[in-house]
UniProtKB/TrEMBL annotation:
Keyword Oxidoreductase among record annotations: yes
Keywords: Oxidoreductase
Oxidoreductase found in the keyword field: yes
Upper taxonomic lineage: Bacteria, Bacillati, Actinomycetota, Actinomycetes, Streptosporangiales
Source domain of life: Bacteria
Pfam families, sorted: Pyr_redox_3 (PF13738)
Entry GO MF terms: flavin adenine dinucleotide binding; NADP binding; oxidoreductase activity
Protein name per the record: Cation diffusion facilitator CzcD-associated flavoprotein CzcO
């Protein structure tokens, strides 16, 4: 028997899963995609300046290397184009149910009853039987809108960075940007170029390091395409650099001070005004929040039409943003306020064995063995699940490890029945994770999207990525119970 598999999401993770199934000759799957196109986060985040801060030669599938990247760090349209290329090349579009959202899924003792309906409608729902559910909804798919008094009274145009209003021309306008994370750092320079005046509301400064971007000329692209092993070696070099230099900086290792020095040197080189520099200097260790990798952010903040306001926002009025220093009148507000990152899988209602609810089980923070398997939820597998995010390397690497693990699981669940991670395996996993977490920089000293309100780090993987690969490559057989 070949298992019937429901994949939720057609972003980097869901497409990877579908392609690997196709490659294995398994076509008994369907991909549920709430939007009308593939791409996930790379479809949703189309704000001006959007791009990846991990070089695309690494931030791409190992089985679909691409010599045509036009630069080291290409923009969002090119990355989205790559995903569309992969969907077409491996012919997985025919299996994607676009504009269809999964609302709930329940384990019935043998498999999963998956209920879906047309996105955004209260229309008729449809329930189908699958053996396996692979949830590939990502960690950063639901925008976080802050709760600020008076937000609803604002008379101008307001939107979140992941829902950019491309019909709203910013030329000459008075714009407010709330938030200064990786997204804002990318769109602020573009907004500053167009706006009449830009006020950036920064609650906490970020550590920023330069982005060594470069164009790949047709000559370089040809060399990467035709010279045997060159692209592979380049990819390997980027991976090793991230692992060998950036990871130790986050784990209290040899490069911790180096990262700080590099970020401070970047700040001093790009910002001459000591007052602005003071505002932009963080008081927590680098890496505690995601380090911003960008060379255009600081210069944008030094423009004559840009102000950085660090007073606390007290409320939004019909005319603008009010802080302790008064009302900042604007006609546009862009919320660069991040995502509901710790609410994994919300708003899907998942019911496991004996009626247990996933969101109830995770009320103190999401957890899963390898970030993939959840006790009490047989044959449910997660991609980019709890504790699999990275602050230093490519998530696509992690996704491929996870898909690899799931592919190893399929023969077991076919021959032995529904598989569920053993409680003692899960307990040992949690303990090891907590121990490894102690030495990581993101535990104390800052607020970040890596942590729950209670301070538990539910998003990040605390180890080196080769270790994660080793753990996900082991035979899954003994880790699970069956039936
Ligand atoms: O979101 P964030 P993001 N009042 O959560 C502020 C990935 N990414 O969309 O720091 C005022 O980092 C908040 O302030 P504070 C990447 O992994 C990747 O920028 O909490 N401010 C912060 O400044 C990244 O880390 C790429 O004090 C409020 C900002 O909003 C992740 O996405 C590119 C507030 C939120 O920053 C998320 O980045 C872009 C309030 N009430 C993004 N609430 C790549 O290149 C929140 N803030 C791969």
């Amino acid at each position: 028997m070949t298992p019937r598999i429901a994949i939720i999401g057609a972003g980097f993770g869901g497409l990877c899963m579908a392609i690997r199934l196709e490659k294995a000759g398994i076509t008994s799957y369907a991909v549920f995609e709430k939007a009308e196109a593939v791409g996930g986060t790379w479809r949703d985040n189309s704000y001006p300046g959007a791009g990846c801060d991990i070089p695309s030669h690494l931030y791409s599938y190992s089985f679909e290397k691409y010599a045509s990247w036009t630069r080291r760090y290409p923009g969002q349209p090119e990355i989205l184009g790559y995903l569309e290329h992969c969907a077409d090349k491996y012919d997985v579009r025919r299996k994607i149910r676009f504009a269809t959202e999964v609302t709930d899924a329940a384990f019935d003792g043998a498999g999963w009853r998956v209920t879906s309906r047309e996105t955004g409608t209260a229309g008729a729902s449809r329930t189908e039987q699958y053996d396996v559910v692979v949830a590939a909804v990502g960690q950063l798919n639901r925008p976080h809108m802050p709760e600020i008094e008076g937000m609803g009274d604002f008379e101008g145009v307001a939107f979140h960075s992941a829902r950019w209003d491309h019909g709203h021309d910013l030329s000459g306008r008075r714009v407010a940007v709330i938030g200064t994370g990786s997204s804002a750092a990318q769109f602020i320079p573009k907004v500053a170029e167009r706006a009449g005046h830009l006020t950036v509301f920064q609650r906490t400064p970020n550590w920023v390091i330069p982005k060594p971007d470069a164009e790949f000329t047709p000559f370089v692209q040809s060399a990467l395409h035709f010279v045997p092993g060159l692209q592979r070696a380049y990819r390997e070099w980027i991976y090793r650099y991230a692992e060998g230099t950036l990871y130790p900086a986050l784990a209290g290792g040899w490069s911790t001070q180096l990262l700080k020095k590099r970020a401070l040197a970047h700040l001093h080189t790009q910002v001459a005004d000591p007052g602005l520099r003071a505002k932009l200097t963080p008081d927590y260790p680098p890496g505690c929040k995601r380090v911003v990798i960008d060379s255009r952010f600081y210069p944008a903040l030094t423009r004559p039409n840009v102000d950085v306001v660090t007073d606390r926002i007290t409320r939004i009025t019909p005319k603008g943003v009010e802080t302790g220093s008064g009302l900042h009148e604007v006609d546009t507000i862009v919320y660069g306020t991040g995502f509901l990152s710790t609410e994994f899988l919300a708003p899907i209602d998942l019911t496991g064995r004996d009626g247990r609810k996933l969101h109830e089980q995770w009320k103190d923070g999401a957890e899963a063995y390898l970030g993939i398997a959840v006790p009490g939820f047989p044959n449910l597998f997660l991609l980019y699940g709890p504790n699999t995010n990275l602050g230093h390397n490519s998530i696509v690497f992690m996704l491929e490890c996870q898909v690899d693990h799931i592919m190893r699981c399929l023969p077991y669940l076919v021959s032995r029945g529904p598989m569920e991670v053993r409680p003692q395996v899960m307990a040992a996993w949690t303990e090891q994770l907590e121990r490894a977490m102690e030495r990581m920089v993101w535990g104390n000293g800052c607020r970040s999207w890596y942590k729950t309100a209670g301070g538990r780090v539910t998003n990040n993987w605390p180890g080196p990525t080769p270790l994660y690969k080793r753990l996900t490559s082991r035979s899954p057989g003994p880790m699970y119970k069956y039936g």
